[in-house]
From TrEMBL:
NCBIfam families reported for this sequence: RuMP_HxlB
Keyword terms, alphabetized: Isomerase
Descriptive protein name: 6-phospho 3-hexuloisomerase
InterPro entries per UniProt: PHI/rmpB, SIS_dom, SIS_dom_sf
Length: 179
């Protein structure tokens, strides 16, 4: 189907342009973090929640900002923000707060120059269409960025599995059993 090809083409084009060095830096930050805080709004936030779930399966301490089980920050914590536009007001406030607390931070975005990026220690760009740039895709709003985000997160999990000597079997032992 032509529509499937549109989606797959958007994903392949954007993912192939991700900076591998920055990806490796993010893996290192995650491995060395005491706790990983994740934040995103809308559909970008939903993709990030899936990533938080897999980080937990890896045995890492992770939570989504705003959830009731999110702990107090400490030295060596990491904040990862997902924002296609990089200018979501609530996330700007959050990264400024993290900056004031001297927390390490990373932004995953579709935008090269962003307010959130100015306060982030690492900016990992997924050069895909976001809600403010309709020209890169026939898909609506930020769909391409959100789809690529999920592919990126699953790629990060594979890299983290190798770095942490984890497997599907060891991760499955941490999967929820009260379902």
């Amino acid at each position: 189907m032509e529509e499937f090809q549109i989606v797959l083409s958007d994903i392949e084009k954007a993912i192939s342009q991700i900076n591998r060095d920055k990806l490796d830096i993010l893996v290192n930050k995650i491995v060395n973090a005491h706790h990983i805080f994740l934040a995103g709004a809308g559909r970008s936030g939903l993709m990030l929640r899936a990533f938080a779930n897999r980080l937990m399966h890896l045995g890492l301490s992770a939570s989504v900002v705003g959830d009731t089980n999110s702990p107090h920050t400490q030295i060596n914590d990491l904040l990862i923000i997902a924002s296609g536009s990089g200018k979501t007001t609530s996330l700007i406030s959050l990264v400024k707060k993290a900056h004031s607390l001297s927390l390490d931070s990373a932004l995953i975005t579709a935008s090269r120059s962003t307010t959130i990026g100015e306060f982030s220690n690492l900016v990992l760009e997924i050069p895909a269409q976001n809600k403010d740039d309709e020209s890169k895709s026939a898909q609506p709003m930020g769909s391409a960025f959100e789809q690529c985000s999920l592919v990126l997160y699953d790629t990060l999990i594979l890299l983290l599995m190798a770095a942490l000597n984890e497997s599907s079997e060891t991760m499955a032992k941490r999967h929820a059993d009260l379902e």
